[in-house]
């Protein structure tokens, strides 16, 4: 309730390749599975069974675990078999029309399932949760009568009540957005025992109001978790053997913990040179650099990543960049979402920077962190984008040469500023052609960037067997690039005992022998540790 001091928890997620495959599939509009978990402490034999499906970003993966923790505490069991379920909940995405269409299609399948359900069993209850629920609200209930429950991202605590209303045969909805909900007291639920990687949510919502983006309308205003609770959680994950944590938020580097009274009058940091915001500078609070510093000190053998930052929030004093350069366990990898290479389009998008300012930041980052791996997001075919604008984006891809890229055709969303003020005037076939050209350019440049690593030794965190061959292992290097190598007996650099095979969670030094736009291949040299590898470089 108001004034309560809450302590947030998040969750360790499925290990490495499984999680990344799951997230890529979810982003493409395919659901993630509902893993089979033991009944929670609150559930009893004969408890109602819930089946959860996740669509969209990592934030939704984290939200799925929040939902499960709440329902588990309220006597539900979880199943991975759709046919066993009494309740089916879809955690949805609204960022593009394709993601929403995947949900409407899924509902048609569930309608058939509901109709076939034996009369002896209680009726199947279906719920739509998350961003699509927030965007469309009660319209979902009117359009699709089989939906019983609609709950927005800030209403998950209300799910037990909403489901109880649905039990009585009525439809129920709660789509209220909150200024302070962070689910801070939700206890963690480990989705996969022995996972090597985990996401830790550090904030919710976004205040940037980019003209194309639905997030501020579906996830609400920006609010941050208390640092103390984040540190407690990362420590817990370290104790469980997790070897890589990604700090997660819509805009992580504008993080601002206001829970400690003595820091509430701290001056707002400056923005990157040539960058601006649509909101006034925010005074007070402990900032992202303080959080990153503290998190990196918890476990020298745990890698730290973060996503997604906004380019404007790398202030000129470069404290975050300095930390990345100095700390051996903060990955030398940055996500710098550009969205377009045209200053004219960036202005229409309300991104708060020009092409020149963005490139200056890229050079500053590369000067500050030698060998940094860069990734980015791009939208093609935004309102009013000309062929010249498009070619500016192609040339930015060539000039920066990203290691990883996420590229999409523009999809107009209701409620956004673009929907109210701009025309979605680039034809679909033109968007498709431009997207194909961007993808081809990105792959060409990424292949060049990765080929430069051939002959070098890379430290790889093993995630598990390769998808394509049981005789090979798969992991990621510091730059978050996938590395595949043979599963062989390896010496241990730290111990002079018998050789052994690498296990998920081990660090292996791999000499790169070949590269493509998405993958490195190599030969394993030895097992080692993060600290030992850093000391030898």
- What is the helical fraction, as a range of percent? 25-40%
Distance between the termini: 51 Å
* CATH superfamily membership of the largest domain: tm_1862 like domain
Tally the beta strands.
Answer: 24
User: Quick one: CATH class of the largest domain?
Assistant: Alpha Beta
CATH architecture verdict of the largest domain? Alpha-Beta Horseshoe
Count of the domains? 3
What fraction of residues sit in β-strands? 15-25%
Which spans have pLDDT < 50 for at least 5 consecutive residues? 1-29, 33-43
Determine the structural class based on helices, strands and strand pairing: alpha/beta
Shape, please?
globular
Compute the gyration radius: what is it?
Answer: 23 Å
Describe the 3D structure.
With 537 residues, the chain is α/β, with parallel strands linked by helices. The chain has 3 domains: 49-174, Rossmann fold (3-Layer(aba) Sandwich), CATH 3.40.50; 197-452, tm_1862 like domain (pyruvate-formate lyase- activating enzyme, Alpha-Beta Horseshoe), CATH 3.80.30; 456-536, Nucleic acid-binding proteins (OB fold (Dihydrolipoamide Acetyltransferase, E2P)). Helix content is 32%, strand content 20%. It contains 16 helices and 24 strands. It has helices spanning 16-27, 58-73, 97-116, 131-136, 139-143, 159-167, 215-219, 227-239, 288-296, 319-326, 343-349, 355-368, 387-400, 417-421, 428-451, 530-535; strands spanning 11-12, 49-54, 77-78, 87-92, 125-130, 149-151, 172-174, 197-201, 203-204, 223-224, 244-248, 256-257, 286-287, 303-307, 333-335, 373-380, 404-409, 457-465, 472-476, 482-486, 489-490, 500-501, 507-515, 519-528. The protein has a 6-stranded parallel sheet, sandwiched between helices. Helix 13 runs parallel beside helix 15 (428-451). The protein starts with 10 loop residues before the first strand and ends with a helix. Residues 1-29 and 33-43 have low confidence and may be disordered. Its cofactor is [4Fe-4S] cluster. GO terms for molecular function: 4 iron, 4 sulfur cluster binding; metal ion binding; tRNA-2-methylthio-N(6)-dimethylallyladenosine(37) synthase activity.
